[in-house]
Specification:
Strands 1-2 form a two-stranded antiparallel sheet. The protein contains 4 helices and 2 strands, in the order ααααββ. It starts with a helix and ends in a 9-residue tail after the last strand. The mean pLDDT is 86.
């Protein structure tokens, strides 16, 4: 196999994993919104597996670059530009990877925002449940007492 062919194989595998991660991130948003925590936990485990797979593919790509005498930290765009052979497929894969990573980044930000909103809602509800209240009365004594009342009885 030529360098171009080997690189193409590795990048296609990376694109496949990224696409799977993107699909999972879309499913995760629905799970967060619909409060399906068990499914969310299972999906997160799948996501971790894919992330580990992506790390292995990244190592494979770095070894490939090293084997062919290129610096491991060379940007993939520079590598593709240096290939004298037909590199249209590599350019397509690179562009598709950029697109999928951008979508994945946006979806992960949305998922993080949804999770934070849920945590804020839980915190708000916990504060309501365990709220301290002021005993009704007159004067300046306004003694606070902690209670486990669900509603606030302030006058």
């Amino acid at each position: 196999m030529t360098f171009r062919e080997e690189l193409e194989v590795v990048m296609e595998k990376e694109l496949t994993v990224l696409t799977e991660l993107k699909e999972l991130s879309f499913k995760k948003a629905d799970m967060i919104i619909n409060n399906h925590m068990r499914e969310l936990e299972e999906t997160t485990k799948k996501e971790e597996t894919l992330i580990n797979e992506m790390a292995l593919l990244e190592e494979e790509r770095e070894k490939l670059l090293d084997t062919w005498g290129l610096a491991v930290n060379t940007p993939i765009s520079n590598v593709i530009e240096r290939i004298p052979e037909d590199n249209n497929r590599l350019i397509y894969i690179r562009d598709k990877m950029k697109e999928v990573m951008a979508e994945l980044s946006l979806r992960n930000k949305l998922n993080n925002d949804l999770i934070q909103d849920n945590l804020d809602w839980i915190d708000f509800n916990m504060n309501l449940i365990t709220n301290t209240h002021i005993d009704p009365g007159y004067g300046k004594e306004n003694k606070k007492s902690s209670g486990n009342s669900i509603f606030d009885r302030k006058v």
